[in-house]
Amino acid sequence: MSRGEDEPMKGLTCRWTRWRGSAADDQGIALSMVLLITVAISGLIAAMVIIGTGALRSSTGHAKFDQSLAAAEAGIDSLLSELQADQAFTNAGSVPSSWATAPPTEAEEQAWARAAILAQDSSAVQDAGVGEYVAIKPAGWNAVYAMGWSPSKAAPNATARLIKAEYLFAPYKPGNAILTSGNLAFSSSVTVDVSTGFVDAKANVHTNGEAAGTGCSQTVNGTVTSSGAYGVCGSVGDTGSGGGFPLEDVPLVDPRFVYNTYASVYADDALGPDFQWYDLCYDGKVRRPGGVGSAPCTGDELADLEAGGTYRGWSYADGSGTTAPIWTMDSTTWGPGIYYAYQSDAVMDRNTTVARATVLAEGDPNGGPTSRCQMKGGRITAKLVSVQAAALPGIVFLADDDLEVTSNFEGGIGLFGARNQVKLETSSNGITGTVIANDTCTAGGDLNEVKNAVINYDRNVEVPLLDMIRTTQWLELKSGA
Q1: 184 and 322: one domain?
Q2: pLDDT digits (tens, 9 = 90+) for 92-149
Q3: Fewest C-beta atoms under 10 Å: which of 149, 228, 255, 402?
């Protein structure tokens, strides 16, 4: 082939070579881009995994942190419940004696509490569902401590929280004018209002049973509510009255608790003769209370009325079989004071006035009729009597059985309480304070009745029926694991 014929082929070959080189370059660039993108995506995925793992670890840590606190709080709640039932409860040693004169620093308190908790036996470890806890109540110190662990005390890397709660006991302050565990019925003309001067208060009524009313002539300056059925007439009570409400806690009417707590305080006339305590005993004797911790009717004898006679207006009649002895006040010379009818009934039946008086009746839980669940004694009946004020502040009448107030009774200010039922029927100025019924025995009927009565609720009444535990400080102490 001639030289001139070779020139076109040579040019074609050069162009093909350049095209091949360009295609190879493009492939290399594409491969590099793919590798870069792959690396970038892999990096993003790795970063996302790291972030996700960290978030999960953080979430788990927060969950353990919260759960250990919840476990510790469960421990505090369990001890406060124990203390409400038994104020002398303790399950650990005493705090250092130096704390009485020089309160500890937070670091000192934390160190002592942590060491005391960790020194407890393995049986002290309790399951709280969300973790475990150990809770202690040291003697001589109004505080409880609890340490909670999540997921458990023995778990590796368990999260721990240490908290304390300081507390005090305060008298029970009723939040209702009338509060009953069993059924409550209004009839005829009834007025439930607030005492003079409490214009911003309400005289609420609640029953954990059924509420009923007839005659539609009742006036209640507050709500009337029931946990059971509601059958009170028309417009009685404020807006919000009705049935189906949650159960409310009804404090236990317990004359013996009051005796154990206060009798020795009023055993002599150090507070004045109006505030002296007298045991009216089942054997006809009148006695002073004994010392601290003494049972009723074990103190010095003041009088023996088994053969007759009176003492400060009271007379005695023996019981028989299932019938309890009866102490009766039927004199116009009723002396003021605190009267404790022990395993007896107390009856006030005389048109008379006493400046200050409190009457409590404790029954014998054995030997009584089946209609009273074997309770013998403990009933209080009052009529034609005016008690101007309570001798034991906060309590006018406290019955281990029924409390029946009828026929022109006037009394206040304080609690009118019954372990069983309350029946109020008085057309005088009525009562001032609060009414509580436990309805413990319903064998003889479960109806609390308010008829022709005026009840003036005093929201400032503090009832020494029981002491409510109240926390004054809730604090976390730095604990470590």
Answers
A1: yes
A2: 889 999 998 898 998 999 999 999 999 999 999 999 998 999 999 999 899 999 999 9
A3: 228
Q: Are residues 24 and 125 in the same domain?
A: yes
The token pair at 350 is 């005389």
* H-run or E-run covering 395: strand 394-399
Whole-angstrom distance, CA of residue 9 vs CA of residue 6? 6
Tell me: the pLDDT tens digits for 263-272?
999 988 778 8
Q: Is residue 2 part of a domain?
A: no
**Given this model, what pLDDT does residue 1 score?**
47
Rounded Cα distance, 363 and 345, in Å: 8
pLDDT grade, residue 352 (50/70/90)? confident
Residue 396: its H or E element: strand 394-399
Q: How far apart are CA 208 and CA 210, in angstroms?
A: 7
Answer whether 0.70 is exceeded by the pTM.
yes
Same domain, 130 and 208: no
CB atoms within 10 A of CB 454: 20
- The single-letter code of the amino acid at 357 is A
Q: Which two tokens stand for residue 442?
A: 């319903």
Residue 173 has a pLDDT of: 84
Query: Burial level of 57, CB count in 10 A (0-12/13-18/19+)?
Result: exposed
Distance CA 22, CA 278 (A): 119
DSSP 311: B
Question: Do 56 and 198 share a structural domain?
Answer: no
**What is the C-alpha separation between 126 and 309, in angstroms, rounded?**
61
DSSP helix, strand, coil percent of the chain (3-state; round to 5): 25, 35, 40
Q: Is 22 helix (H, G, I), strand (E, B) or coil?
A: helix
Res. 334: pLDDT tops 70: yes
Token pair recorded at residue 299? 């103190």
Rounded distance, CA 191 to CA 174, Å?
19
Cα 50 off chain centre by: 49
Q: What is the DSSP string of 218-268?
A: EEESS-EEESS-EE--TT-SSTT-BS-PPP-------HHHHHHHHGGGGSS
346 and 372 housed in the same domain: yes
What are residue 360's DSSP bridge partners? Answer: 340, 398
Look up the domain containing 355 and give its range.
178-468
What does the longest C-alpha to C-alpha distance in the chain come to? Answer: 165
H or E element at residue 349? strand 345-362
